[in-house]
Amino acid sequence: MLQIIPDENERAGGYGFVVIASEGFDPASPVTVEILETFGNRWLGQSAGDGATASIGDPHWQSVPHRFGPFEVRIQDGIARVRIGPEIVNKVPEYTHCRVKVGPVTAELIWPDTLTPRAGATALGGIRTISRPHPIEPAGFAMPEPLPPEPVAGAEVEPPALVAAKRRSGLYLALSIFMVLLALAAGWVILSGIDEGPSPEVVTPKPEAASVPTHPAALAPEQGPSPQVIADPAPPATDACSLEALTEGTANFAGLYDRLGGCAGQISPDQVFDLLETARTANDSAAL
C-alpha cells in the first residue's frame, strides 16, 4: 500500500514522503516519481514559470509523463521512504485522484489534505540529502492524536472552598430575590383584600320573650343542678408558617412555593434556604 505523508520536520510545509513496502527498492539506486491525474488522464509536469523556487498552485498538466527526481530511497524495517519536495507538494491539489509511480511500483490514491504548500520553497530538482533519520510508519499506520496542552505555569486555580463559597453566595442572592418577590406578592394579596367601603349592617330581629306561667300547677318541681358537660380540650393551634406546617402534605417545592407567599416576614431566609436545599437533594425539578 502506497501512502503520501507530510514531513513533520518541515513546519512550514512543502515536503513529504512517499511511503511503501521496500520490496523491489535498493537504497543505492535513486528513483523517479511520476504522477497521473486519472480523471483527466493528465500527467503532472514541470511548471514553466517556476525557476529555482516552486510556486503554489497552477499545476502544469501535460499529455506525456514527466519524471521528477531522481530521489534518494531510505529503507528501514521493511519500509521504503522517498522524500518529495515543493515541485510536487505545491502543485497537486488535495483530494485529487492520482496514479503515482515510484520506481518499480505504481499505485492509485486520493491526494491527502495533510500536505501543506510552502511559498518560496526551493525545488528539489534531484537528490537531496536528508539531514537526520525520520521515524517510519508502516502502511496503514494511524498518526496518534496530539496531546492536550499542558497547564500554563503560574495560572491561578481557584481552591474548592472559594468555588463553594461563590456558589453559596449565588444561592443566597437568588433566595434574597425570591424573598423580595414573596413580600411583594404578599403585599399585593393584602391590599387586594381591603374592602373599599363599610359593609351594610345586618339587623337580626330579637325573639319575643316567652310569658312565664304564674299558676302553681304550671310550675315545674324544683330539681337539682344539671350536670355540666366538660368538652374535650381543643388541640393547640399550629403555626402555619413553621417548617412542619409548610412541608405537611406537600410533595414538591412547587406546592411549598404557594404556601410561602402567605408567610412573608414570618420565615427567615436561612429557613427558606434549608427548604430549597432539601428539595434540590431530592432532585425536585421545581427547585433546580
Report on the structure:
The chain is α+β, with helices and mostly antiparallel strands. It is 22% helix and 19% strand. It contains 5 helices and 12 strands. Strands 3, 4, 6, 7, 10 and 11 form a 6-stranded antiparallel sheet that branches. It has a 4-stranded antiparallel sheet with strand order 1-2-9-8. Strand 8 and strand 9 (79-84) form a beta hairpin. The longest helix is centred in the middle third of the chain and has 33 residues, at 160-192. The radius of gyration is 47 Å and the shape is rod-shaped.
Strand fraction = 15-25%
Beta strands, count: 12
**CA radius of gyration:** 47 Å
Using the alpha-carbon principal axes, give the shape.
rod-shaped
The helix/strand class is: alpha+beta
Distance between the termini: 57 Å
- Low-confidence segments: 125-134
**SS summary, helix count:** 5
Helix content: 10-25%
Overall pLDDT level: 74
Report the major sheet. Answer: 6 strands, antiparallel
Order of helices and strands: EEEEEEEEEHEEEHHHH
